[in-house]
Automatic annotation (TrEMBL):
Protein name per Swiss-Prot or TrEMBL: Sulfurtransferase
Keyword Ribosomal protein recorded: no
Organism whose genome encodes this protein: Pseudonocardia parietis
Origin organism lineage: Bacteria, Bacillati, Actinomycetota, Actinomycetes, Pseudonocardiales
Pfam families, sorted: Rhodanese
Residue ranges annotated for the Rhodanese domain, each copy included: 2-108, 142-258
Length: 268
């Protein structure tokens, strides 16, 4: 949250809001889902304000959060989607907690290190399309012909509970790989080989088209990142994101839903 960032942050870090800047504003379930992708012009304004420069190989853009890495992964995904080179974009392993545990300097109103000079406004030109996306039909096709991963908690996938969206269950054919399992108890991302084994168990192997969704398109970005880090998908062919995710799918009464542990069981 903005107040938390003001109180304690990595010196020089720029706050970017999930609901209003990393999405096109919070939306009701329906077309685009609860966290629709921001438009290219709006995203360009946000990233320029953060100081992101265009085609600058010497500038590394690092995203972090104080949660499980999923919000940072959304920023990572949007930077890549905007056309920023993969070599220039990173997510801080372990987030702000790991930074503090390492004894590194912290700035903010709670006291701490002095701030460096603010970055000048950036000049990034957003070239959308740097990361693949699918709509609901594309997600259904991936579930049928490739592998579609559901990043939500297992109880939501099985249809035992649904605290936010209109219906319970999952996209028929999707396989449950909760994003929360990308990280260990210390909040750091699991080793690539451990992630790869997890995804192999779900049917995501090199050469198989893959995609990810979650409740509203945020946690799914963490799966896309984890898939790439694991080597399951190549940087030249990342997994596709279904941005509307379950919030869009479940709002359409014409879309079937499955329940239970198995991908195709109890279609309705």
């Amino acid at each position: 949250m903005r107040d938390d960032h003001a109180a304690r942050r990595i010196p020089g870090a720029v706050f970017v809001d999930l609901d209003t800047e990393l999405a096109a504003g919070p939306s009701s379930p329906g077309p685009g889902g609860r966290h629709p992708l921001p438009g290219p012009a709006a995203l360009q304004e946000v990233l320029r304000a953060a100081g992101v420069r265009d085609d600058d190989p010497d500038q590394l853009v690092v995203a972090y959060d104080d949660r499980d890495g999923s919000v940072a992964a959304r920023a990572w995904w949007l930077l890549r989607w905007a056309g920023v080179a993969p070599s220039r974009v990173r997510v801080l392993d372990g987030g702000f907690a790991a930074w503090q545990q390492s004894g590194l300097p912290v700035a903010g109103t709670d006291g701490g290190a002095a701030e460096p000079e603010p970055l000048p406004a950036g000049d990034l030109v957003v070239r959308s399309g740097g990361m693949p996306v699918v709509d609901a039909d594309g997600a259904a096709a991936l579930a049928r012909d490739g592998v579609l991963l559901d990043a939500r908690a297992a109880a939501r996938y099985r249809g035992e509970t649904e605290p936010v969206d209109p219906r319970t269950g999952h996209v028929p054919g999707a396989r449950n790989t909760p994003a929360a399992a990308n990280t260990g108890p210390d909040g750091r991302w699991l080793a690539p080989e451990v992630l790869a084994e997890r995804f192999r168990a779900a049917g995501a192997v090199p050469g198989v088209p893959a995609g990810a969704y979650c409740g509203s398109g945020i946690n799914a970005c963490a799966l896309v990142l984890a898939l790439e880090e694991s080597g399951t998908t190549l940087p030249q062919a990342p997994a596709a994101l279904y941005p509307g995710s379950w919030s869009e799918w479940s709002a359409d009464p014409g879309r079937p839903a499955a329940t239970g542990d198995r991908p195709w069981v109890a279609d309705r």
